[in-house]
């Protein structure tokens, strides 16, 4: 058997450093998660096993010694640091929820957040002195400050690197933080940030200013590409990036550093810098990146992985990168052992390892029948995606099918957008007006990336759901291992590879017919369109009355296609909130529409104006139906029974008046009587219950996506045996509320929801009996 150095010389990967990195990871996890006595027993066992190996194989003494030092050393360091936090006075005061005076260093930018009861600001800080219960302690432990919204305002906002004092109530928290601090009042700034951090802040501000003239998507994306500043990213765009496997572009990652330092090294070579001068330029680039992106653990981790990526790009890059990966893992865990428990660390390490160990072989295999540059462009994201897929599935419950293709298509724009964005920040510090030029260039690249994310997310099947259970993730891990073996044999062959790619592309892009769906005899359907409403009432073989159109035109158009709807005699928009009218263009212009009924309250006004304008453009009349109006279309008859009168909302806040103005209808189709409620809130529900006490139906769409704010007497009094909840998966509103579901089930109603069951349909058989079916 060849020695390690002989294997390395022959081109095989030297795995000694990555193995040490894996041991360091295991040691950190053991040190953080195991109690002291158990850790001591485990250490003795490991040490004994190591000595036994040395006795049997004396030539392995050096390797075993290194492994023991790393495993036990990192484990001990992690345990000692965790113990210091656990036994600190801050942790004890937090357990008592004491009020404390704290002085310390601000280690993150203040981050505004939206909460259920209003906004707040998160600031991480390293405490220098703490006073509580009449005692003062000196320390260097981190805390997370939950502060009022005013902390984000100019003149109050504490900048990164400043020393501040504050007063607040401590609360217990798990992990590396010593306490959670609920701040009272404004902070007192004792010391401003140094010149270096102040300069970095100026560059970040100039970067945002250089793209301020761009559309919202590109304006928020460019700072995320350059320094991981993703504040202000539209929620739907973030979701598109997640589905398309482009989320890594929104966070500080090794890619950012590789692009920036690579650009600096290119400039240095053009300037005839050689040898050690390039090392100095590279080192300065790494330090500058860390300062610009903020000296947080996640940034240091990204810098380390980016440095490994740069090593992999040099001569003998695979060996240097492999060794660098092991050294980086050990160093990072000594710097911050809590990284071992974070998803970001796991993703970075796995992606880097995948690129180092899998990408070169796959690239060389495909280079036999395609250009080498194209083979590399495919192999790198493919290797990273395969390596990270089990972890991504564990945290998201999804496996992206478009990630590799999306990254491949977006890749040409990432470098120019990132580098031009950095240029905008640097130029903007000196000349603000001129910074718009590189900012515009960055925006062009950002537009392409946004387009790729949006189009990928709108495909028929961009991702598949996957259980995040231990069994599910373990099975997926095994599948990925098998996939690497299969790809190793498949990729050298042109036609099988192209055939597999074609089949996968068809599955992703083209809706496949589902046998038996929609079921024969369907009369009413609640389409799965995410966090919004879209209901179809069947009016003929290829016609349906549509009630609301959800938030997304593509999802709405797909709903019509699934159910074979080619004509919409009437379109009812219960009210003008985006989750009910945003998908309008998926109906208007896609199929013929006879008329549009709308709410009597034009709130929000921009949405109401847009709906009416689209009606004029498509020559479709738009009208407010009178209360009590009855209409028949084909086999469907419906009557408007609300709003009884417009009332303000209560618990739901400023959108309550529009919600209570929702058009409410009773529909009869196929012998089934259904109540379609829109987003009516308790106030409107009480009015309807009092005015129509004898109202009885078979099916009900649950008001406002099952919001917790309901009139329980109304829900229980309709007699509905089937309750349909149109709701988005993992929505941030807590819909449907558990109490709402309990009330409905207590009445004997069967509750189906689109986030769990997909499309929901009411079916009537040949004997006139009705029932419910779902697509999942």
Largest sheet report: 8 strands, mixed
Characterize the overall form: globular
Rounded average pLDDT: 84
Count of helices? 27
Structural class: alpha/beta
Structural domains: how many: 4
- Strand order, sheet with most strands: 14-13-12-11-10-9-22-23
Distance between the termini: 55 Å
Strand content: 15-25%
Rg (C-alpha, Å): 30 Å
Percent helix, as a range, is 40-55%
Question: In a nutshell, what does this entry contain?
Answer:
By secondary structure, this protein is of the alpha/beta class. The protein has four domains: 13-86; 94-193, Nucleic acid-binding proteins (OB fold (Dihydrolipoamide Acetyltransferase, E2P), Beta Barrel); 199-471, no CATH class; 522-768, Metallo-beta-lactamase, Chain A, CATH 3.60.15.10.
What does this structure look like?
- There is one protein chain.
- The protein has 776 residues and is an alpha/beta fold.
- The chain folds into 4 domains: 13-86; 94-193, Beta Barrel (OB fold (Dihydrolipoamide Acetyltransferase, E2P)), CATH 2.40.50.140; 199-471, no CATH class; 522-768, Ribonuclease Z/Hydroxyacylglutathione hydrolase-like (Metallo-beta-lactamase, Chain A, 4-Layer Sandwich).
- The protein has 27 helices and 23 strands.
- An 8-stranded mixed β-sheet has the order 14-13-12-11-10-9-22-23.
- The protein is globular.
- It starts with a helix and ends with a strand.
């Amino acid at each position: 058997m060849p020695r390690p150095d002989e294997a390395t010389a022959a081109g095989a990967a030297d795995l000694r450093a990555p193995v040490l990195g894996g041991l360091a990871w295991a040691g950190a996890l053991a040190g953080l998660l195991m109690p002291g006595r158990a850790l001591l027993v485990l250490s003795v066992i490991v040490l004994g096993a190591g000595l036994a190996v040395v006795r049997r194989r004396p030539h392995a003494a050096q390797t075993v010694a290194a492994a023991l030092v790393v495993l036990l050393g990192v484990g001990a360091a992690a345990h000692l640091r965790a113990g210091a936090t656990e036994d600190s006075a801050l942790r004890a005061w937090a357990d008592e929820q004491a009020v404390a005076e704290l002085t310390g260093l601000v280690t993150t930018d203040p981050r505004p957040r939206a909460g259920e009861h209003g906004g707040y600001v998160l600031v991480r800080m390293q405490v220098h002195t703490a006073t509580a219960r009449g005692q003062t302690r000196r320390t260097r432990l981190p805390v997370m400050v939950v502060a009022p919204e005013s902390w984000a305002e100019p003149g109050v906002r504490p900048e990164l690197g400043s020393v501040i004092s504050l007063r607040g109530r401590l609360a217990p928290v798990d992990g590396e933080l010593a306490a959670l601090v609920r701040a009272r009042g404004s902070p007192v700034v004792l010391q401003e940030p140094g010149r270096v951090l102040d300069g970095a802040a100026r560059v970040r501000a100039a970067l945002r200013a250089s793209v301020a003239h761009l559309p919202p998507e590109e304006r928020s994306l460019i700072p995320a590409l350059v320094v991981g500043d993703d504040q202000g990213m539209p929620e739907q765009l973030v979701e598109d990036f997640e589905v398309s496997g482009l989320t890594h572009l929104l966070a500080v990652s090794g890619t950012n550093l590789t692009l920036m330092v690579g650009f600096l090294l290119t400039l240095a070579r053009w300037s005839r810098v050689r040898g050690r001068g390039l090392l100095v330029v590279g080192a300065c680039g790494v330090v500058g990146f860390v300062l610009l992106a903020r000296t947080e653990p996640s940034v240091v981790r990204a810098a380390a992985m980016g440095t490994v990526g740069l090593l992999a790009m040099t001569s003998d890059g695979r060996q240097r990168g492999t060794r660098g990966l092991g050294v980086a893992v050990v160093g990072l865990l000594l710097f911050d052992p809590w990284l071992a428990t974070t998803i970001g660390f796991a993703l970075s390490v796995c992606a880097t390892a995948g690129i180092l160990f899998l990408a070169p072989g796959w690239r060389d295999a495909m280079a036999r029948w395609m250009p080498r540059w194209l083979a590399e462009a495919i192999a790198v994201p493919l290797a990273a995606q395969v390596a990270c897929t089990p972890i991504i599935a564990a945290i998201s419950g999804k496996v992206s099918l478009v990630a590799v293709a999306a990254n491949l298509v977006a890749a040409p724009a990432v470098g120019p957008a990132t580098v031009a964005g950095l240029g905008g920040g640097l130029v903007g510090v000196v000349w603000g007006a001129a910074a718009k030029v590189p900012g515009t260039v960055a925006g062009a690249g950002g537009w392409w990336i946004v387009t790729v994310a949006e189009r990928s997310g709108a495909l028929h099947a961009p991702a598949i759901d996957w259980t995040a259970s231990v069994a599910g993730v373990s099975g997926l891990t095994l599948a990925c291992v098998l996939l690497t073996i299969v790809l190793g044999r498949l990729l050298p062959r042109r036609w099988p590879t192209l055939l597999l790619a074609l089949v996968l592309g068809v599955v992703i892009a083209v809706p496949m017919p589902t046998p038996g769906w929609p079921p024969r005899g369907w009369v009413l359907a609640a389409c799965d369109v995410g966090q919004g409403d879209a209901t179809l009432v069947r009016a003929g073989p290829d016609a349906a009355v549509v009630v609301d159109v959800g938030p997304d035109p593509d999802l709405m158009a797909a709903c019509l296609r699934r159910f074979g709807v080619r004509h919409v005699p009437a379109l009812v928009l219960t009210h003008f909130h985006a989750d009910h009218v945003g998908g309008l263009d998926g109906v208007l212009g896609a199929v013929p529409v006879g008329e549009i009924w709308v709410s009597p309250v034009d709130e929000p006004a921009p949405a109401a104006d847009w709906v009416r304008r689209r009606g004029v453009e498509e020559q479709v009349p738009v009208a407010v139906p009178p209360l009590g109006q009855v209409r028949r279309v084909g086999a469907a008859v419906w009557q408007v029974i609300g709003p009884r009168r417009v009332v303000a909302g209560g618990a739901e806040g400023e959108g309550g008046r529009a919600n209570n103005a929702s058009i409410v209808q009773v529909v009869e189709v196929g012998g089934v009587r259904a109540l379609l409620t829109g987003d009516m809130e308790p106030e409107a529900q009480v009015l309807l219950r009092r005015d129509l006490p004898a109202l009885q139906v078979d099916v009900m769409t649950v008001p406002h996506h099952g919001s917790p704010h309901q009139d329980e007497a109304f829900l229980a009094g309709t007699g509905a045996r089937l309750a349909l909840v149109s709701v988005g998966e993992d929505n941030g509103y807590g819909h449907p509320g558990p109490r709402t579901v309990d009330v409905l089930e207590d009445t004997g109603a069967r509750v189906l929801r689109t986030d769990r069951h997909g499309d929901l349909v009411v079916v009537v058989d040949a004997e006139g009996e009705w029932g419910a079916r779902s697509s999942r």
